[in-house]
Design goal:
flat; 505 residues; Alpha-Beta Plaits; Udp-n-acetylmuramoylalanyl-d-glutamate--2,6- Diaminopimelate Ligase, Chain: A, domain 1; alpha/beta; 20 helices; 17% strand; PucR_C-HTH_dom; PucR_dom; 4 domains; five-stranded mixed sheet; PucR family transcriptional regulator ligand-binding domain-containing protein; 15 strands; CdaR-like_regulators
Length: 505
């Protein structure tokens, strides 16, 4: 259901919605579900495509930084839109949130009257469920027609022609290496460009086609203006099994490929080390060789997989990958000599991966053997969960996060109770936190950047865009509040740890 149609519904209109940010992102934007929550840490629990309703209670008491992070996290998860009710608790939406929503392409609506959240969710979600059932039925009809064509001896192009004809799209099946395996146009011709000359492509949908768990191809459906992208995606997803059977007749996967797919599923689910070692050996990994996990969160995870595989092939001796909805994961087998340099080169290469806005990439810590692959993957996932809170920039232009740069946060999140963390931060940084809160200053951020730079005042001043003299004045104020210059004392490590833990909940 289009966001524009949701906003026109009488239950939403009753709340008097006003678009406050990202108007260019509204046209054609699909809503998968309507959800209501006051939890600021809701982003990791969402799948993307949701219209999120908020009463503003939690936002009203949150810090400016947390409000901005809230918007960025929702945009990163692919949320369709955010609607916030204003009133006595939250008289207006903060300007910083509007700027963050605009820069991240997240439509943000102000609900200027009391919003009937329950009524909105019941009405809209009921419509969405009905539409989903109808789309699935149509997708199954297309799948049955393709199966009949295959059963009567039709080849790959003939099966694709059925899909193209019944969806009104041009379709192409592409190998992981980028080679065209088959194609058909909506006019029934054998070329995927059959309709392109007559009708401009409005959207392209990509769906992975596995054969026995091994990625064998990617199905691309180009839909002209006027065809529902949601219908095209459902039709493509329902055709995967039939296309897999057609491909199986031409190119059955080998045992090594099957073991690689099974290994990645085991890594993704956190299997025991002995199981990973069994599968790793069968998939061609050195059992005792160093490994590092790669995790990509993106709405285009399936489409990114061939490009990721090419980067891995150029960067490391051996690798395997696996796509699961909004996550694309990989395991890189690193050389025994120059291991850390190879990992650093991989991080740099991943920075060149062309990913959509809102995507995030993390590389897990080194695992000593394939048995530690699941641990490396879990730490990469933890890094992506923690990184938005810290406000620290990622490496390279494509938001690559190095788990090693978040080792303190990862350890604290896993092993230290939240209450103990907060007490430690309060006791260590209390006067600085109070100063920032009372005077809206940036002393904590300044201290964090200075400590992260290795106490290099000139470098920290450049990163903060401050004159050096201003930087010295800020540091002196910080030293006065925290008991003096920590350099050369035993307090430096504790102070640095506290600045890393301060953004955590």
């Amino acid at each position: 259901m289009l966001l524009e149609d949701v906003l026109k519904h009488r239950t939403v209109q009753a709340a008097d919605p006003l678009l406050r940010a990202a108007p260019d992102s509204v046209p054609g934007r699909q809503v998968r579900w309507v959800h209501s929550s006051e939890v600021l840490d809701i982003a990791p629990l969402l799948r993307g495509g949701e219209l999120l309703l908020s009463g503003g209670q939690a936002l009203a008491t949150a810090s400016d930084k947390r409000q901005v992070d809230y918007v960025r996290e929702l945009a990163g998860r692919g949320v369709a839109a955010l609607a916030i009710e204003t009133g006595p608790t939250l008289p207006d939406i903060p300007e910083s949130m509007l700027i963050a929503a605009e820069s991240n392409g997240l439509p943000l609506f102000e609900l200027r009257k009391v919003a009937p959240f329950v009524g909105i969710m019941q009405e809209i979600n009921s419509i969405l469920v009905g539409q989903s059932v109808e789309l699935l039925q149509r997708g199954d009809e297309i799948s049955h027609a393709m199966a009949a064509e295959l059963a009567h001896g039709g080849g790959l192009d003939e099966v694709l022609a059925v899909l193209a004809g019944q969806t009104g799209t041009s379709v192409r099946l592409v190998s992981p290496a980028g080679l065209t395996l088959g194609s058909a146009g909506a006019d029934g011709g054998g070329s995927a460009g059959g309709t392109a000359g007559a009708l401009a492509t409005a959207s392209t949908t990509a769906v992975d086609v596995p054969v026995r768990g091994v990625l064998a191809a990617r199905l691309e459906l180009e839909a002209p203006e006027g065809i529902d992208p949601a219908f095209v995606r459902v039709a493509g997803e329902r055709s995967v099994d039939i296309l897999g059977l057609a491909l199986l007749q031409r190119m059955p996967p080998g045992l090594k490929e099957l073991a690689g797919a099974e290994l990645m599923r085991a890594v993704h689910s956190g299997a025991q080390p002995w199981r990973l070692e069994q599968l790793g050996a069968a998939a061609g990994f050195a059992v005792d060789g160093p490994v590092a996990a790669v995790m990509i969160r993106s709405a285009a995870s399936g489409r990114l997989r061939p490009a990721l595989d090419r980067i891995l092939a150029d960067s490391v001796p051996h690798a395997a990958s696996y796509a699961d909805k909004l996550e694309l994961i990989a395991l890189a087998g690193l050389p025994p000599e120059g291991t850390r340099a190879a990992r650093a080169s991989l991080i740099e290469a991943l920075g060149n991966l062309d990913v959509p806005e809102g995507s995030a990439i993390a590389v897990g810590p080194l695992g000593q053997g394939v048995g530690e692959a699941a641990w490396s993957m879990a730490e990469a996932r933890r890094t992506l969960d923690l990184a938005p809170r810290t406000g620290r920039a990622a490496s390279g232009p494509r938001q690559v996060r190095d788990a090693d740069a978040f080792s303190a946060e990862r350890l604290a999140a896993e092993s230290i109770d939240g209450g103990a963390r907060r007490d430690f931060v309060r006791r260590t940084l209390g006067p600085i936190l109070e100063h920032d809160e009372q005077r809206n200053s940036q002393l904590l951020h300044t201290l964090t950047v200075w400590l992260d730079s290795g106490c290099n005042t000139a470098q920290a001043a450049r990163e903060l865009h401050l004159e050096r003299q201003s930087m010295y004045h800020r540091l002196q104020r910080i030293f006065d509040l925290c008991g003096g210059d920590p350099r050369g004392t035993g307090r430096l490590a504790g102070l640095h740890l506290a600045t890393r833990l301060a953004p955590l909940p």
